Amino acid sequence: KGEFFFFIKRIYALDLLRSVAIIFVIILHSVTLSGVLSRDILSPMWTLSLYARHLAFSCVPLFIMLTGYLQRKKTLSLSFYKGIIPLGLSYVIISIISLIAKAYADSTIVLTPTLVITKILDFTANDYAWYFEMYIGLFLLIPFLNILYNNIGTKGTKLTLIITLAF
Question: What is the reported pTM?
Answer without folding.
Answer: 0.68
